[in-house]
Prior knowledge:
Shape: globular
Strand content: 25-35%
Number of domains: 2
Low-confidence stretches: none
Distance between the termini: 47 Å
Number of helices: 9
Number of strands: 20
CATH architecture of the largest domain: 3-Layer(bba) Sandwich
Helix content: 25-40%
Bound molecules: flavin-adenine dinucleotide
Mean pLDDT: 93
Largest sheet: 9 strands, mixed
Amino acid sequence: MKTSFDVIVIGAGVMGSSIAAALVESGLDVALMEKGIAGGQGATRDTGGIVRGLELDPALRPLTRRGAHHGNTGIVHAMFEQALKRTGVAYIASSEVCGRYLDAVGSEGTQSVELHASVSALDNGRFTPFCRDECLLIERDGGMVDARVTVSNLCRYISEKATFLDHLAVDRCVELDGMVQVHASKLCLEATWVVDACGASSPVSRPVGAVHARTIPFTRLSCDQVPSMPIIAHHLNTYLLPLGRNLMQVGGQRRHRADRAEQLNLSLLDNEQDVVERVTRLGYDRLHTLPVVTQIAWDAYTEDGRPLIGRSTRESHIYLATGFCGIGFKMAPSVAELLAFELGGLMAGSQMEGEHRSIMEAFCPSRFTEVAFS
Ligand SMILES: Cc1cc2nc3c(=O)[nH]c(=O)nc-3n(C[C@H](O)[C@H](O)[C@H](O)COP(=O)(O)OP(=O)(O)OC[C@H]3O[C@@H](n4cnc5c(N)ncnc54)[C@H](O)[C@@H]3O)c2cc1C
C-alpha cells in the first residue's frame, strides 16, 4: 500500500472532504483519512446545509462569497452549486442589523439582495403581525444543500482519483525533518503537509484555548405550513429550515461548551420548550406545531467567531482548518480553494500573493498564541 503523500487530510466532514477534493484537483498526491464514515460523525452529520453569502463579520466574507477567488471555479464549488436548492434565504432583523449586513456585502453583491422595510414580502405576509418592528432581507441566490449527498460525492471523487481511508482513526501525528508521520492503528503514513480538519475533536495538538466544542441543539417540528425558504430570525436568535411539506427544523439556544466534543454534556435541557416558545412568537400556534424530535449536535468554536485556517505554528507542516462556529458548511468550497492554492504553492515553492495572504491573516491560528504570550 502506498504510504507517502504530498498532503494527508484528517477528517472527512464537509471541510476535510472539500479540501481534499480541491487538492486532488490541483494535482497533488492526497490521502483523506476518516475515523468513521464520511460526513457521518461530526458537525456535518447534522448540518442544516444553509448556504448564504451575507455575513456580519466582513473578515468572513471572502469565505462565504459564492464563486471562486482565483478565476477557477473548481470541482468543489461546482458540486455545491449543483446540489444547491435555490430557494433564497430570508433574514428577519432590525433595520440596524440589515444595514450592517448590507455594509458587509459592499456594492459587489447587492444585485441578489432585496431589502424590505417590513416582513410582508415573505410568505404572503403571514409573519407581519408578529414582526412589526423588523425589516426583511432576502438573499435570492442562497438556499440549501443536501450535505450527505455532497460529501459522499466529494469522497467518491477522492477515492477514484486519490486515496480515501475511512473507518481509520488517526492516533497521533509526529513532525520529523520537514515531513509529518501520521499514525493510525497499525499504519504509519507520511506526508509533506497534513491538514487537521477534525472539527471539535482532534488527535493533533492545537494552540491552547484556541478552539473549543459547543453544542448546537435543534428540534424538528411538524406544522401546518413550513416557510418557503430558510429564515434567519435575528430577533429570536434562531433559524427555521423547511425540510418537507409539514416538517421544519428550528435551532435551540440552551447550549453547553467543553474543550473537546467527547467532553460535551449532550442532555436535551429544555431546548424543546425553548424552540416552541420561539416559533410561537413567529405566529405558529402551539396546537398545530408539534415537536417530533430534538437532537444535540455540536461544532468547533473559537472565541472571536472566526475559524482557524493556517499553520498550527509558524514552522509547522500541520495546517489547521477548524473552528467553523456553526456556519462552516457554506464556507467549505472557499476554504478548500484557499488551501489548495496555498499548499499547491508551497509544494511548488512559489510565493503567496498579497490578496491571498490578507484573507488568510484573519484566520491565522497564531492570533491566539500571541494573545496568550503577551
Ligand atoms: C445542527 C447544525 C446545523 C448547522 N447548520 C449550518 C448551516 O445551515 N449552514 C452552515 O454553513 N453551517 C451549518 N452548520 C455548521 C457546519 O455544519 C459545520 O461548521 C461544518 O459541518 C464543520 O465541518 P468540519 O468538516 O469542520 O467538521 P466535522 O463535520 O465535525 O468533521 C470532522 C471530521 O473529522 C473526523 N475525525 C475526528 N477525529 C478524527 C481522527 N482522530 N481520525 C480521523 N478522523 C477524525 C470526524 O469523524 C469528522 O467526520 C451547522 C451545524 C450543526 C451542528
